[in-house]
Specification:
Layout lengths: L5 E5 L5 H6 L4 H7 L9 H10 L1 E8 L2 E12 L3 E9 L8 H16 L4 E7 L3 H9 L3 E9 L5 E10 L5
Parallel strand pairs: 4-5
Antiparallel strand pairs: 1-2, 2-3, 3-4, 5-7, 6-7
Length: 165
Amino acid sequence: MSGDRIRFRAALSDDYPSICKLFTSAEELFLAFPTARWPFTLRQLHRITEQRTDLTVVSDREDTIGFADLYDLVPRRQACIGNVIIKNTRRGQGTGKRLLEYMLDRIFNHHQLPTAMIAVFEDNRPAFRLYRQLGFTVAGRETRQRPDGQDAVLLQMKLARISHR
């Protein structure tokens, strides 16, 4: 089974081109990283590395199949999981769930924080269902503008360490 070969590790600069290729459309990039501009470039990714922590690659053998990071890390309070992306051909196979569980472990056990946050667009139903399944609850909402100019509701979701399995 391919899931047995999946590994999580810190992203290296050599991974950056394959991370950029995970985003295959402007809409997909918007859902994972609303402030980025299509096409996603190495320059944008380098900016992320300066502002975020725990940049994590999911690989299956030599193939990069996912990415996520942490941002707004506030010691003794919380961190936000961001830029979650799974390769198109690998979605629906549990890889996203495993990546989120890994990132939650980083927040709760490595950083010893009591709260994890994540944002999801209201119409991104698969991601919303997954976050709910992991125990996240809606803590707020805001309106963002899609690349096509349409409004989109961004839900801020929260998970307390005590409710994490």
